[in-house]
Amino acid sequence: MFGKDQKSSASCFEECHSISEVPGKIVLKSIGLVQYTLKGVAGDAPKEMEGVFEGLLDAARKAGGNSVIKVQLVAGSYQQQGSGWHMSYVVAYGEAVVLQDKASYEALSGSVRAADAARS
Q1: Cys staple from 98: which of 13, 28, 84, 94, with CB 3.0 to 4.6 Å?
Q2: Does domain 26-119 bear CATH number 3.90.640.10?
Q3: Where does the chain have alpha helices with state H?
Q4: Which of 63, 117, 49, 52 is nearest to 95 (CA)?
Q5: Helix (H) or strand (E) holding 81
Q6: Beta-bridge mates of residue 72
Q7: Domain map of the chain by residue range?
Q8: In terms of DSSP bridges, do strands 25-39 and 67-79 run parallel, antiparallel, or are they unpaired?
Q9: Rounded to the nearest 5°, which phi and psi values hold at 41?
């Protein structure tokens, strides 16, 4: 499962979140559901799982987002056309969004409010 010489694997994907509200960030825009499917998972599974999150984030970026929230994974296997061989798959899905740092958003909002007040 981990390859010949690997006993463990770790990765961090800062733009993929399993929660709906990211501390210190604000959702500016919700784009919609994105998903990524990986079939035939075998061999170096941890490295392939990195590809799942990268694929999910790439789908979000192509749709105009910069992050994915509410990320879920579904995994399973099925028999390939009655051959006796079992194929494994992983489906990752979540909501593509545009996130911004809360502090920079509040600073920008404050500047806009000040400009509006000066015009009044």
Answers
A1: 28
A2: no
A3: 45-62, 102-119
A4: 63
A5: none
A6: 93
A7: 26-119
A8: unpaired
A9: -70, 120
